[in-house]
Amino acid sequence: MKLISLLTDFGDKDNFVGMMKAVILKINPQAKIVDLCHQIKPQGLEEAAFLLAHSFRYFPEGTIHLVVVDPGVGTKRKKILVKTKNYYFVAPDNGVLSATLKLEKPQKIIEITKEKYFLKPVSNTFHGRDIFAPAAAYLSLEEKPESFGKKISKIKELNLPKPHKSKNALSGQIIYIDRFGNLITNIKKASFNRLAKKSFFKIYCGSAVITKISRGYVGGKATAPKALFNSFGNLEIAAPNNSAQKTLSLNRGDTIRVKAQPL
């Protein structure tokens, strides 16, 4: 009995997530489903890629990670199943798996083409229900990955933003904003430490300048924005008991800059 995690941009207003779960359970009534997240920004491939890459390893080995963030639904984009040493991934081939598969090397990549695993008729607008959910369900019943279609050699890559480094500065971007309004950047702790070690540093984020790294969300001035390294190991800007996004008027894609000056 395999666990299926579900990551989508469907939200909770409509019946899309419920229908996908119903399809899975109709095929495999013993399936266990974990809702990873359904509040991805619509068509938010970068957000989905980020959350998946920082979540998949916390699941038991053998988990099937089902991802449906699919702005190309109904087009000729491929539908893929990927097997790694420890996990399975079912998703559209639009780059949403690319960050994860840099961390978890693919052993097999299968283009899902066998129509016997599809719901009939197949809608042009809801492959999550008609193709991806059935594929994950049959996979949870121990169907071989090769049964779903032909092997392919590569997947589409998503061009994720990377920090820009110079001798005394590091410029990153806000890549995710959580429901608390915390601003998560693509600056990793190791990169920050290499720049700021034995240096006086300033973190420029909108109208705020931060000169220290906090251990958590409390302490210091109650209302002052704080910089910290979150549970993902990314530099994060938070406003205690408030939204850093609203306080600093910043959004995803905005620049966060670190400047270092030797002591």
What does it look like?
There is one protein chain. The protein has 263 residues and is α+β, with helices and mostly antiparallel strands. The chain folds into two domains: 3-151, S-adenosyl-l-methionine hydroxide adenosyltransferase, N-terminal (Rossmann fold); 164-262, Beta Barrel (Elongation Factor Tu (Ef-tu), domain 3), CATH 2.40.30. 18% of the residues lie in helices and 32% in strands. It is built from five helices and 16 strands. The chain has helices at 16-27, 45-53, 127-140, 189-196, 244-248, and strands spanning 3-8, 32-37, 64-68, 79-84, 88-92, 106-112, 149-151, 164-165, 169-177, 183-188, 199-205, 208-210, 213-214, 226-229, 234-238, 255-262. The strands form two sheets. Strands 8, 9, 10, 11, 12, 13, 14, 15 and 16 form a nine-stranded mixed β-sheet that branches. Helix 1 (16-27) packs parallel to helix 3 (127-140). The chain is elongated. The model has no long low-confidence stretch (mean pLDDT 94).
